[in-house]
Amino acid sequence: MRQKIIVGALLGAISASALADVNVYSYRQDFLIQPMLDAFTEETGIKTNTIYVKDGLAERIKREGAQSPADIVLTVDISRLEELVNEGLTQAIESETVNANIPENMRGDQWVALTSRARNVYSSKERVGELPTSFTYLDLAKPEYKGKICTRSGKHPYNLSLIASVIAHEGEAAAKTWLEGVKANLARKPQGNDRGQVKAIMEGICDYALGNSYYYGKMLTNEKEPEQKAWAESAVINFPNQETYGTHMNVSGVALAKYAPNKDEALQLIEFLTADKAQQMYADVNFEYPVKEGVAQSDLVASWGEFKQDEIDINEVADNYSKALKLVDEVQFDL
Predict the structure, then answer these.
(1) Residues with Cβ < 8 Å from 146, sequence gap 6 or more?
(2) Which pLDDT tens digit goes with each residue over 116-147?
């Protein structure tokens, strides 16, 4: 009940907000993005109102229709950006500043990437050590890894995008064979989040796990839950596919809502998020890879070393997303 009251109060605040405010719908957690929003307000005087939702933002905006207060939508994963576009809930971001800040391969017709992140394979520091540069995602399906792999649900967007990238590179049939092999090698049913997989390595449940790169930084520097440092310190962060087509990269991004009531201010916020100051904050606070050229990685992320990134067009990954979801169901990956 208390949560409903809080959400209701927030909605009331948004509907009653001044025109100069920017209403932000976000899949990204407040503690991750609020520092950037606060910096925007300090620089421009434009306030922001934020709703954080774990799932169903597209359905929510569709339900609100032309009366939606949403100005921009912040998401993780290319699939969620494409979902908004495909549902007709966005509009073109027409800004020379944004185009100058963000490379063309990191922009869609109606969305812009704000950060990128690697999909890593974590290995037990004690039982495995660092993986060779020849290690690939496809190796996870080999018989010698039986009972040694942990991962979250195959239907989570992070895994679906990795599977979609395998489809894009190897074809659907080969991707299905690979996914069947990975399922056969799981130490337990898919469950939890990315950090939980690294914890499972420390607990000896598995020796290998899939997880995004920035979680490694968040765990190593977690002062509120210092036990997470031990999780991270028990594992090595590895970047697969260094001798093939590179480590799979995904993005977080922003879309301009179709009925944005405060479009001019919303565009200013998008431009701010793609510029040096916010890009550096994403790098330093969230341990993500900035997408604007010339913005430095955090010292901690830089310490993980340079690596070869998969340069496939992120839109091609998104195009194979529905096929990836179908494969997860066909091989009953989560069962």
Answers:
(1) 184, 185
(2) 999 999 999 999 999 999 999 999 999 999 99
Distance CA 207, CA 145 (A): 9
The CA-based dihedral angle spanning residues 306, 311, 314, 319, taken in that order and rounded to the nearest 10 degrees: -140
CB atoms within 10 A of CB 33: 25
**Distance between CA 261 and CA 275 in Å, rounded?**
23
Q: How far apart, in Å, are the Cα atoms of 119 and each of 11, 158, 225, 247, 268? A: 35, 8, 23, 7, 31
Which residues pair with residue 218 across a beta bridge? Answer: none
Nearest residue to 131 via CA among 117, 143, 145: 145
Structure tokens at 241: 């596919």
- Beta-ladder partners of 237: 122
The residue ranges of DSSP E strands in 182-328, in sequence order, are 208-212, 235-238, 249-257, 289-290
pLDDT reading at 54 higher than 90? no
Condensed to tens digits (0 to 9), the pLDDT of residues 67-125 reads: 999 999 999 888 888 889 989 999 999 999 999 999 988 888 899 999 999 999 999 99
Q: Which pLDDT score, from 0 to 100, does residue 28 have?
A: 87
Distance CA 318, CA 332 (A): 22
- Amino acid code (one letter) for 134: S
CA-wise closest residue to 269 among 109, 46, 35, 14: 46
- Per DSSP, the residues of 80-146 read HHHHHHHTT-EE----HHHHHHS-GGGB-SSEEEEEEEEEEEEEETTTT-SPPTT--GGGGGSGGGT
Strands (E), the chain: 22-26, 48-52, 72-76, 90-91, 111-124, 149-150, 208-212, 235-238, 249-257, 289-290
Place of tokens 């990954």: 317
